[in-house]
Amino acid sequence: MKKILLFFILLSYTLIAQNKVKVDLSNPNSTIYTHLYFLQPDSFEPEKAAQTIYGFEGKDAEDAAIKLKKILDGKGLKVDFSKIPKDKFYSDTTDYKIGNRYVLFPYRMPEVYVERIGDSWYYSSETTSKINELYKRTFPWYTEKLQQIIPEFGHEKLFKIELWQYLGLLILALICVALFYILKKIVYLILQKVQYWIIHKSNDKIKLALKKLTRPIVLLILIWFLKKELPSLELPLDINTFIFLALNIMVTVFWIYVFLKLVKVVMDIYADYAESTHGKLDDQLVPILHNFLKGIVIFVGLLKLLTLFGIEPVTVIAGASIGGIAVALASQDTVKNLIGTVMIFVDKPFHIGDWIEAGTVVGTVETVGFRSTTVRAADTSVYQIPNSALSEMVVNNKGLRAYRRYTTNLGLRYDTPPELIDAFVKGVRKIIELHPETRDDAFNVEFSGFGDSSLLILLNVYFVQLDWNIEQASKHSLHLAILKLAAEIGVDFAFPSTTVMIEQFPEKKSIAADYNIDFNRIQQIIDGINKKE
């Protein structure tokens, strides 16, 4: 009875052992599993793994299978079988490969994929034809020679890593330290040459930014060097996967840092250019554009970091798009204001410091932000106008006027003799011609009409200075000159009044002014204006 029981136990164990793992090429998952399983140390049967290679037979197929596994291990590419389809009619719908095929690592090694040929799945002919090329690109030329010179005790393991591999890691670390100090100076000089070649000038701010930019660029070069040399150490797959993941994360973080510093350098250069321009709106654009570009760099960098942890970029972008739509719908006013901000900077209806009239708001533009524009009125009160509303308003930008026009009427008394009116008009014209803040080729001083209580002298002049304060000072000096002229030639200004004729009343005197019309004296006064100016 015991012999029969022992027979059945041995028979069942044999059957289980035979059915546990066998060559299976029925679907992508089985083919890849067959290839990798029969090349493990405890189940090393390369002749079975070679059956997954299409287009090769015998020893060539075995070498191709072994090299392909070494390439994946050397790159730290660990296969996740839970994501590999088991459908024998699986069809790839991505942009990488079309048809009944599956790409193992579409973003890191798109050349390696399996495809359905007949009723079975194999590594494609394209993959097998490129194995030798991929092997040479992955492993440095001295990798095989390095294995031949390592003594036997160097293969002893400590925490799954051989002693010679510890020594190789130490040598790589020392080389990186030496290269860091050498490359640091070289890269900084190159950046200085490029920066000077682009803008032909430099300053302390740009030099400091270039120094900060040098370090991450050097570290990126060293990481590239490590990723090229690490496969030569033939570390275990798990350790390679961890190291390459850490290096890829560092690369992404350093690239984010590099682009942030690059944005700062570009913005510093643009800030210098904006300061040299006449308009001040460019100055206001610098911080807005800086923050916008920083946001883009950080956003793209975070998407890249998510893909390193196995999240598909398409999924990330789709999720970001859906989230962006949701946020946009929840904050329509903010989006409208942002679009308004863009339109303001594109159309440039005003500059910082311009005096504008927008609806009921009149004042000086102080800042233009992402959401609103700040306008300070003449009474120093501050208005915050949403950019979405401002971009749709009719904006009267008085800061863009070529000249500041000033028009008024000088009212003379009705009893002013025509000769004095003519002399007064000529004198005012002479004052305008000699005034330093007015255009001497475009003005009007004319006897324009008869008012209710005065004779109207039209005064229309253009001030060359656009600043509001200078305009008021120019008016002040012009008015004083006109008053002095009127006082010297004896012209009186009228004011709203009603004249009652009392000349016929006994013992009453007329209120008519006693004008002294001496043409020689008047001409001397007008000619003297030039000397006084």
UniProtKB/TrEMBL annotation:
Claim: Cell membrane is one of the keywords in the record: yes
Domain Mechanosensitive ion channel MscS C-terminal: from-to ranges: 408-492
Compartments reported by the entry: Cell membrane
Main location: membrane
UniProt entry keywords in alphabetical sequence: Cell membrane, Membrane, Signal, Transmembrane, Transmembrane helix
Molecular function via GO: mechanosensitive monoatomic ion channel activity
Top-level taxon in the UniProt lineage: Bacteria
Bilayer topology term: Multi-pass membrane protein
Mechanosensitive ion channel MscS domain: residues covered: 333-396
Any GO CC annotation of this UniProt entry: plasma membrane
Transmembrane segments: 163-183, 209-227, 239-260, 292-311
InterPro entries: LSM_dom_sf, MS_channel_C, MscS_beta-dom_sf, MscS_channel_2nd, MscS_channel_C_sf, MscS_channel_TM-2, YnaI-like
N-terminal signal peptide: 1-17
Family per similarity comment: Belongs to the MscS (TC 1.A.23) family.
Protein name, per record: MscS family membrane protein
Organism the protein comes from: Lutibacter oceani
